[in-house]
Amino acid sequence: MDQATPTTYTTVRDGIFHPPPHIEALRAHAPLARMTFADGHLGWLATGYAVSRAVLADPRFSARGELKHPPVPRVGELEQSPSAPPGIFIQHDNPEHQRYRRLLVGQFTVRRMRLLTDWIEKVTESHLDAMERIGSPADLFENFALPLPSLVISEMLGVPYADRERFQHDTAVWSSFNSDLEELAKAFGGLTMYLHNLVVRKRSAPEDDILSGLMAADPELTDEELTSIAYLLLVAGHETTANQLALGVLALLTNPAQLAALRADPSLTDNAVEELLRYLSIVHHGPTRAALEDVEVDGRLIRKGEVVMVSLTAANRDPERFDHPELLDVTRSATSHLGFGHGAHQCLGQQLARIELRVGLTALLRRFPHLRLAVPPEEIRLRHDMQVYGVYELPVAW
Question: pTM of the full predicted structure?
Fold first, then answer.
């Protein structure tokens, strides 16, 4: 039996790290429950781990953008979601999604990841040098967590890092729930035009980067497709990792026993990265999927056209899957978390993100053995109003 009144979703968490209380309570008795979307659409909310995996793995659910509904209100929400342009592969189903994904997987080679790891280690040390020169206290987000993934994705795409302020600004506007339609259009249009010009330059002067590699792998890819792919990788490639790194450091600094355990045994770093991905689940809402036909999930009948929103935040805290999920435990084996999603659309850049997080955390904790917050935790501004959760700044001292 469905709950008497459909729930709504909120991005405001309980404290800093925990899911909204009513979402946690809902999962306990209805891991798949009725939900009212921001535009009034009556759909479903998946909060249980098993249910979430089932929905994300089922090809009877579509990722197509024009079939979705907004889970939470935003100032500049369109009346109807448009069809995703060619190249925005996360909002396409097969065969289009599979075609783009195979091309991109071919660019994330073992050789490129190995070379990038060495380069990321050097870049990380140089940013820590710069932060040390600034002196204590300093903003860890602005001086370390944000520039590191921004540099990495710029290097991979062949985007001049000198242009970082532009794409960081446009990404922030696009991600904010408070941006109006005019601001959204300006940010999207400006970044799209910039990347289109970059694609044109790469066609005439290819280099050792992902865009040039895609052109060589499939000469039939259009400029529009390549621009969309670049847009998606650029936005996702720095926004998510930057906030995961900063929020992960905050989680460790506010859990001194776990920080001490990691410092005492650096071999736990891989475990710690996976546990932080589970514990934090920085994607506020989604993925969302639309039923292409009537589908029964967990004893509930989801009608054709109804949309299911998966709450990764709740699913990764499901006690049916993780013991004491409310606790941060760097010794936990949490590799089955849903932090990168699940199924055919699981995050393409997850291995790169893991490298950045592992290298960043290792170097930071080694360089600053007495790292601590420079302000009380309750004074840190949290990104409840952005698509990706995190902090606006992270003042630290050492």
Answer: 0.95
